[in-house]
């Protein structure tokens, strides 16, 4: 029965009517994200709070995206995006972490890079828009903690993975105004690990120029060997782009 239900779901997805662009379309944008960071990092049984112990400061992160849509039926549209989070801070460890004992002043930095390749279909394409697809996310993050006395080795916590994620994007257009509102999201949860990333925005388009502003939040709870990052990043963003 479970196999039959799965087959019916797959058949329904395959049979789902898919809209496609009448002409070839391309767009690109650059955005700035004023993000706050919270959460924990772990190496084995040692844990550190990135906000309270390391005092990692908020920062303005740049992100890039581009998409290609085409009129060829059954072939998915393509979206690429890139995000770089670079945050640093100075704090004091409340408890020992890795080889650094508690009570030691430390400098820290987080270097987070991710590239998304999304293949998607336009399920609806009128004043209500809906895209559904899959994202492959190449995630590479490193947290470095250095004690300011120089007495202890530098601690590095690294997570690297390529994650398959479900992708959905919905948008409501107010006809004849260029004004719209929407939400975009990626998500995966498997075997104790989970990643989600969403943004809610308002948008204005004129003469092919796209102005967008909203709120974005990303949460990663991922274990790579004995190293783990459980981090939330969130804050307002703004972007400018073009399409033709």
From TrEMBL:
Alphabetical keyword list: Signal
Record bears the keyword Signal: yes
Entries under InterPro entries matching the protein: OMP_w_GlyGly
Domain of life: Bacteria
Signal peptide: 1-21
Name the record gives this protein: Membrane protein
Taxonomic placement: Bacteria, Pseudomonadati, Pseudomonadota, Gammaproteobacteria, Pseudomonadales
């Amino acid at each position: 029965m479970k196999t039959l239900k799965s087959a019916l779901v797959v058949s329904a997805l395959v049979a789902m009517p898919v809209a496609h662009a009448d002409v070839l379309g391309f767009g690109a944008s650059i955005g700035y994200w004023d993000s706050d960071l919270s959460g924990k990092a772990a190496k084995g049984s040692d844990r550190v709070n990135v906000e309270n112990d390391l005092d990692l400061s908020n920062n303005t992160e740049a992100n890039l995206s581009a998409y290609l849509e085409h009129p060829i039926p059954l072939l998915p549209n393509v979206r690429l995006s890139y995000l770089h989070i670079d945050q640093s801070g100075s704090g004091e460890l409340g408890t020992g972490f890795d080889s650094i004992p508690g009570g030691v002043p430390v400098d820290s930095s987080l270097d987070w890079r991710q590239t998304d390749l999304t293949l998607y279909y336009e399920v609806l394409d009128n004043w209500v828009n809906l895209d559904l697809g899959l994202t492959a996310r190449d995630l590479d993050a490193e947290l470095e903690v250095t004690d300011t006395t120089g007495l202890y080795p530098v601690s590095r916590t690294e997570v690297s993975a390529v994650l398959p994620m479900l992708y959905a994007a919905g948008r409501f257009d107010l006809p004849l105004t260029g004004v719209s509102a929407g939400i975009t999201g990626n998500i995966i949860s498997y075997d104790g690990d989970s990643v989600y990333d969403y943004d809610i925005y308002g948008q204005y388009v004129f003469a092919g120029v796209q102005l967008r502003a909203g709120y974005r939040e990303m949460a990663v709870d991922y274990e790579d060997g004995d190293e783990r990052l459980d981090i939330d990043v969130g804050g307002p963003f703004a972007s400018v782009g073009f399409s033709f």
